[in-house]
Amino acid sequence: MSALSILFATSEMAPWVKTGGLGDVAAALPASLRKAGHDIRVLLPAYPALKTAFPEAELVASLPALAPGLPACRLLSAKASGLPLLLLECPELFDRPGNPYLDASGQDWPDNAIRFGLLSRVAARLGQPDSPLDWAADVVHANDWQAALAPAFLHYQGGAASVVTVHNIAFQGCFGREMLAALGLPEHAWRFDGVEYHDQLSFLKSGLQLCSQISTVSPTYAREIQDEHFGYGLAPLLRHRSDALRGILNGVDTGIWNPATDPALPFAYAANRLAAKRANKTALQTEMGLDVTADRPLFGVISRLTHQKGLDLLLTIADGLPDLPAQLVVLGSGDKAMEAGFAELAARFPKQIAVKLGFDEALAHRIEAGSDCFVMPSRFEPCGLNQMYSLRYGTPPIVRATGGLADTVVDVCEDSLADKSANGFVLDGDTPHALWVAMERVCRTWQDKKLWQRVQQNGMRRDFSWTHAANEYVALYRDAIARKA
Ligand code: ADP
Question: Mean pLDDT across the stretch 68-73?
Answer without folding.
Answer: 98
